[in-house]
Write a structure and sequence with these properties.
about 375 residues; five-stranded mixed sheet; disordered N terminus; binds zinc ion
Length: about 375
């Protein structure tokens, strides 16, 4: 194993790493996408799981200008408004502006979240996992319509079939009249006898096993999106997506990860640091012999090139480095023999210093 020394042991953080990951997103095809973009993360940080799951209270009827009925389900839709980029779905913001009532029709399904914890090595090299997710699926009894079989809809008694009701709203600025979707028929203008299986929702919660391919290079906080594996939409609406949130267990070998760079520490005795030695270092590839050159200083970083983590979405050969941080150990107790040898060393050092006019024994 070839080793090289870093000029500056502190120069081991790579601010551009996150950028690399987001650029490589384009290269991940298939149904899976890894969402590691900082901006998307900030959306999640702001709105949390409730936002991702949608439903009442998530975004509420929030300040985005009228996702009217509170079934604004996908926080990433907000993002597409600002950053573009076909995250599909369509109609995310489609509720009309300013609280206009929305006619009952197909509604997109909510996104579902699944948390997946994987081993350190699986995150580095990728893995296949089967996950069991719970989501709403179309009701088989009523084919998703929510209507009891053999019945037909009748005109809604509350709104008279218009689907709208006028409501007075009192605010500090005065009373306003507001047109709202009829609460009885949800704006449909007609009511139906509900399906007994799904209580009229048209969907039932079921669990499903999904095979997931986790790409090499994912990290804690990575999210995988599986398109169309979220909950079914109401009344035939398109399904939401499944978001798999990745957590990574700590390395049993004590390896630490920083993007594609792996860090670990190695203890070297002061004698070996002076004379040089070879030590066995645990890496993601298994144990590797590392040469510690003579005269290695405490805190030195030795780099094992290409022994780090594959870059997400890049060719398998594109790997980061493994940085080994050398800790020079100095014994607190020495034998009489060792003490004699070290004292002899001190005398030799002092004599050499006198001979060379004050320079140290190490000749540095
Ligand atoms: Zn049903």
């Amino acid at each position: 194993m070839e080793t090289k020394r870093l000029a500056n042991p502190r120069a081991r953080s790579h601010p551009s790493l996150i950028l690399c990951i987001s650029l490589s997103l384009q290269e991940i095809s298939n149904a899976y996408e890894v969402l590691s973009d900082d901006q998307k993360r900030s959306i999640y940080d702001r709105f949390g799981e409730a936002g991702l799951k949608g439903g009442a209270g998530g975004f509420g009827g929030g300040g985005m200008g009228g996702a009217g009925q509170g079934d604004f389900t996908n926080p990433f839709d907000i993002f597409e408004q600002f950053f573009g980029g076909g995250m599909g779905g369509g109609g995310g913001m489609g509720g009309g502006m300013g609280g206009q009532p929305r006619r009952r029709g197909p509604a997109p399904g909510t996104d579902e979240r699944h948390d997946l914890t994987i081993d350190f090595a699986d995150a580095v090299f990728g893995c296949s996992k089967e996950v069991e997710v719970s989501r709403l699926e179309s009701c088989g009894t009523c084919s998703g319509s929510g209507v009891k079989a053999g019945t037909s809809p009748s005109r809604c008694g509350q709104c008279g079939g218009s689907g709208q009701v006028v409501q007075a709203v009192r605010t500090p600025l005065g009373a306003f009249q507001q047109v709202m979707a009829c609460p009885a028929c949800e704006g449909a203008g007609e009511t139906s006898a509900p399906c007994a299986s799904c209580a009229g929702d048209g969907r039932l919660r079921k669990s499903k096993r999904i095979s997931l391919r986790v790409p090499p290079g994912v990290d804690g906080g990575s999210r995988l999106r599986v398109r169309g594996e979220g909950s079914a939409g109401r009344r035939g609406g398109p399904p939401g997506d499944l978001y798999v949130f990745v957590r990574v267990r700590p390395s049993p070998a004590g390896l630490r990860r920083e993007g594609t760079t792996v860090h670990s520490d190695v203890d070297v005795s002061y004698v070996d640091a002076i004379l040089g030695t070879s030590v066995q270092v645990e890496t993601v590839d298994g144990p590797v012999d590392l040469r510690v050159p003579a005269g290695t200083q405490p805190g030195t970083t030795l780099v094992m090139a290409k022994r780090g983590v594959p870059r997400l979405g890049a060719a398998p050969a594109a790997r980061g480095d493994h940085q080994v941080h050398v800790r020079v150990t100095i014994p607190t107790k020495v034998s009489e023999e060792e003490k004699g040898l070290v004292e002899a060393l001190r005398e030799a050092q002092a004599a050499a210093a006198t001979a060379k006019g004050g320079k140290g024994w190490f000749g540095r």
